[in-house]
Amino acid sequence: MTRQVSRTAALRRLGFAEAPVAEARLQEPALAGLVAQAPGVPLEDSLGRAADPDLALLTLLRLAEAAEAAGEGPLLARALSEDGARARLLAVLGMSTALGNALVARPAQVALFTEENGHDGEGAAGQTAGSAVLRRPAHRVRAELLAAVGADAESPAPVAMVAGRDGVNALRRAYRSRLMQIAAEDLTSADPLATFPAVAAAIADAVAATLDAALAVARADLPEAASAARLAVIGMGKTGGRELNYISDVDVVYVVEPVDGGSEEETVRAGTALASALAQNVSAVADEPSLWPLDANLRPEGKDGPLVRTLASHVAYCERWAKGWEFQAMLKARPVAGDRELGTAYCDAVGPMVWGAVEKDRFVEDSQAMRRRVEQHIPSADADRQLKLGPGGLRDVEFTVQLLQLVHGRTDSSIRSRTTLEGLAQLAAGEYVARDDAELLDHHYRFLRVLEHRIQLHRLRRSHLVPTVEADLRRLGRAIGVERVDGAESLTKRLRQIRRDVRHLHEEIFYRPLLPLTARLSTSDVSLAPEAARARLAAIGYDDPSGALHHIAALTEGISRAASIQRQLLPVMLGWLAEGPVPDAGLLAFRKLSELIGGTPWYLRLLRDSGEMPRRLAALLSTSRYVADALGRMPEAVAWLDEEDDLAPRSADALREELAALQGRRTDPGEKVLAGRFLRRRELVRAAIGQVLGMTGRADSARIITRAADVALDGALRVAIADATAEAGLDAPPSRYLIVAMGRLGGQEMGYASDADVLFVHEPEAGADEETATRVALEVAARTRSFLAGSAPEPPLTVDADLRPEGRQGPMSRSLASYAEYYERWVEPWERQALLRARPVAGDPDLADRFVEMIAAVRYPAEGLPADQVRELRRIKARVEDERMPRGVAPTRHVKLGPGGLSDVEWTVQLLQLRHAGRVAELRTTSTLEALEALREADVVSAEDQAVLSEAWLLASGIRDAIVLGSGRASGRRADVLPHEVSDLEVVARLLGHEPGERLDLEERWLRAARRARTVTERLFYE
C-alpha cells in the first residue's frame, strides 16, 4: 500500500492530474510490453515532460493497442527506444488530440518521428530552430509534395500522375505528415519562442508546396484549362509573409495569362476552372479531411469580383480603384505556387503602388480607423480572450509594423520585409522604433503566436481564443514553458502583462502624430534629395535653401542612430519650422541643439515618438531666439515639451522649498547663490516656452518671471547675511533684514528684460552696536546685488535700489526707524507713488509686516493726495515724456514712454490710487490690472476707460516681451520700440497671435490702442 501511494505521489509530481488512473494505465499489457522493449529513462518520466501527461499516456495506450493490431508494434517500440523520437512522439501525444488520433488511425506514421525520417539525433528538449526538419529548404518541400502526386518538380507547370480523388488524398496525407514532423520539432524545442519563426516559415512552405501539388492535380483533371492558361497563386497575409499558423485561412490572389495568345475571356475561364479545382483539392469534403480554408476574398472587389484576373486587369484595378487597406494587404504579396514568372511579374507591377499608397488622402488615418473598427466588432465577452484581434493582441503588433513600413518604406527599401518579426527588426535597425520597444514587441509577439499555435494544435482547429477551463490553461502553460507545475495561474498572469505592454506600445507607435504628416508629403519631399529639397525649401519659406540643405546634410549624414531618426523626422520638421516666422534660424537652432544632445536616448525618443514635443520644438526654434538660446544652455528643458504639466508654473512656496533644499546640500557660498539663480533661469525658460507656445498668458508669464526673481533674491540674501556676519567676526547677524520689491517686481509684472527694483531694510537686534549693525547691513545689501549681478553660468539679475530715500545719494540700506522718519518728514510725491508697488519678497517676516504697516499711511493717504502733490506728479510726468524719450525714435512706436504706452497707463492708475486708496481698501494692490479693476468697481473710472487702459497696457507689455523673445536681446534701446524692420515686426506679430503676413495689423492695432489710451490718460491724469 505504501509503495502504491509513493508511486502515485511521484506521478503527481511529474504532472499527472489523475495519478491513480495513470498508474493503472501504465500497467496495461499493451504498454508493459513496449516498455520492456525500450529500456532507458522510465516511461513516466518521459510522459511527465509532455504538456498534458494524462493525455499523452492515454493516447499512447490507444496507439500501442492500434499498433499491435496493425502489426506495427516493433515500429512503435523502436520509436520509444530512440530518445529523440520518444520525446517528439510523446510531446505530440501530450499536446494534440487531433494529431494523436491521426497516429492511432495510422500507427505506421510513428516512423515520422525517427532520425531516419529527417530529424536530428538530439535528445528530448534539444531541438532548436536549426533542426533538420525546420531547415528543410522550400524547394525540397515542394518537390516532396509534388512527388506525392507523381508530378515533376522540375517542370514549369507540373502535372500530377496521381489525379482525381487519389491525388487529393495523397497530397492531403503528405501535407499532414509534414505538419506532424513540424509539430514534433516545435513541441520539443528548448526555446519555443526562438523556434517560432522557423516553425511558421516551415508551415508556410508546406502550404505553398501543397498548393502547387493541388494545382498539379487540377492540371491533370482539367487538361484543356491547363493548356489554355498560366495560373500564378499569390500568397497574401501570413501565407505571403511565411509566418503561418498550424490552422489558418490561407489568403491567396490568382493571376492568369494565356499560354499561346488566347483571348482574355478564354484565359479567365480556364484560369477560373483551375483555381476552383485547386481550392476543391485542399478544402472540399473528401476521403481525407480538408486541410484549411483557401480564402481569395482579398482579390479586387472581394467576393463580388472575378476569382481570377489577368495581370493587366490587376494593375488597372490598383491604379484606379484600390483602397488603402488593399495596398496594406498587398504588402505581404508573394508568389507561392503556379507560374513563378507570372507571380513575380505581378509583385513587380504592384510593388511600387504598394509603397506609394501612403500618399493617398488620409491613408494613415483610415488605417488607424480600420484598427479601431476591428476592435469595436469583437464581442465583449471575448475581448480579453482574443489573442489575434483584441487589445494587446497580435493585430496590434502586425498593424503597427505594417503602418510604419508603409509610411517610411517608400523611401527606405531596407524595411520592406513581408514577415512581421523581420520587419520589426528592420524598423529597429533603421531607428523607426526604439530598440528596447522592438525587443519587447518581438518577444511578446513570439509569445502570443506560440500560445496561439498551442491552442490550435490541441484539436487542429482555427482558434484565437484563450480557453477558460483550468485543465486547458494548465496544458498551455506547460506547453509554452511557463511554470511547469503551476501553468494555469502563471500563464494567465503573464499573458495579462504581455497584453498590457503590447497595447501600450501599439498606442504609442501606431497613433504617432508624425505618421499622418509624413504620409502627406510627396516621395521627393520625404527623400530629401537635394534638388527637390531645395525647391521645396524655397517654396515653403526658407530664405536660404542652400544653407538649409547644408544643415540637413549635417543632421542626416552617417549611420548613427541620431542620423537615422533625423532622416525620418526632418521632412516633417522642415514643414513645421517653416510655419514659424524665421525658419532658417529655426533650422540652424535645431541643428545646434541636436549636435549638443543628439546622442542622448531621451531626446531621440521624444523626437520620434512624442505626440507634442517635435512640433512644439519647431515652433519655439523658428519663432524665438531667446528660447533657442535658452534651450542651448538648458537642453534638459526640451523634455518639458512632451508634458503640459512640466510647463505649468511652479508656486512660490514650491520654489522656496526647492531653494532651501538645494542650498542645504551645498557648503560653498557661491554655489548656494547659483542654486537660486539656477531656479530663476529655469523658470524664465518655462515662462518663455509657455508664452511662445500660447499656453501661458502675459499676466501668468509675468508672475512666473517675478517669482523667479523673488527666489533669486531670497537665495542671495540668505548667503549675503551669512557671509557679511562671518566677515564681521560675529556669531549671529546684528540685525534683521528685509528686501522690499518695487516697480514691476513689486507689482508682479516683470518682463524678460526687467531689472529688480528694491529697497533694503534692516533693524538692529536689541543690544547690538548700531554702527556695526549699519556697516553689516550695507555689506549685506552690496553682496546681495553683487551675487546676482555675476556672469555665467546663470543670467544676471540687475538689482536697482535707486528708489530708496534720497536716491543714489542715500545709504543702500536703512533701518526701519530711519525709513519711518524719512517718510514722515521728507517724503516726495514720486516716492509715495513708488511705494504703491512696495511688496516684501525676502527676509524677516515680522520686519516685513511692520514695514508694510509703516508705509500704509504714506502710500494710501487718508485724505487723498494734496492738490500741490498732484500738480507735482503731473509736472514730473510731463518732464519724463520730454526728456527720457530716446532720440531718433518715433514716440508713437515707443511702447513704454510714448503716448498711450505703459508709462501713461501706470501713472494714471497710480495717481488715482493715491487719491482714492485711503478710503477704498480694494485699491490697495501692487498690480496695475487689479487696480484698474478695483477703480472700475469703485466707480472711479468707467468700464470703457478701464477696458481701453487695460488693452493698451497688456498690448504694450506683450510687445516688450515679444521683442525680447524674438530677438533674444534682453536689453538695449530698441527693447521698448515697436520694430520697423519687416522681419522683426513679423516675429513680434506672430508672437502676439497674428497670422502670417499680418504684421501691419499689429502696427495698426498698437497705434489705435495707444491713441485711445492717451485720450483717457489726458482726461484722467491731466484733467
From TrEMBL:
<dbReference type="InterPro" id="IPR005190">
    <property type="entry name" value="GlnE_rpt_dom"/>
</dbReference>
<keyword id="KW-0460">Magnesium</keyword>
<feature type="domain" description="Glutamate-ammonia ligase adenylyltransferase repeated">
    <location>
        <begin position="168"/>
        <end position="345"/>
    </location>
</feature>
<keyword id="KW-0067">ATP-binding</keyword>
<keyword id="KW-0548">Nucleotidyltransferase</keyword>
<dbReference type="Pfam" id="PF08335">
    <property type="entry name" value="GlnD_UR_UTase"/>
</dbReference>
<feature type="domain" description="PII-uridylyltransferase/Glutamine-synthetase adenylyltransferase">
    <location>
        <begin position="369"/>
        <end position="510"/>
    </location>
</feature>
<dbReference type="InterPro" id="IPR043519">
    <property type="entry name" value="NT_sf"/>
</dbReference>
<dbReference type="InterPro" id="IPR023057">
    <property type="entry name" value="GlnE"/>
</dbReference>
<keyword id="KW-0808">Transferase</keyword>
<keyword id="KW-0511">Multifunctional enzyme</keyword>
<dbReference type="Pfam" id="PF03710">
    <property type="entry name" value="GlnE"/>
</dbReference>
<dbReference type="GO" id="GO:0008882">
    <property type="term" value="F:[glutamate-ammonia-ligase] adenylyltransferase activity"/>
</dbReference>
<protein>
    <submittedName>
        <fullName>Bifunctional [glutamine synthetase] adenylyltransferase/[glutamine synthetase]-adenylyl-L-tyrosine phosphorylase</fullName>
        <ecNumber>2.7.7.42</ecNumber>
        <ecNumber>2.7.7.89</ecNumber>
    </submittedName>
</protein>
<keyword id="KW-0547">Nucleotide-binding</keyword>
<feature type="domain" description="PII-uridylyltransferase/Glutamine-synthetase adenylyltransferase">
    <location>
        <begin position="877"/>
        <end position="1021"/>
    </location>
</feature>
<dbReference type="InterPro" id="IPR013546">
    <property type="entry name" value="PII_UdlTrfase/GS_AdlTrfase"/>
</dbReference>
<feature type="domain" description="Glutamate-ammonia ligase adenylyltransferase repeated">
    <location>
        <begin position="616"/>
        <end position="852"/>
    </location>
</feature>
<feature type="region of interest" description="Disordered">
    <location>
        <begin position="791"/>
        <end position="812"/>
    </location>
</feature>
<dbReference type="GO" id="GO:0047388">
    <property type="term" value="F:[glutamine synthetase]-adenylyl-L-tyrosine phosphorylase activity"/>
</dbReference>
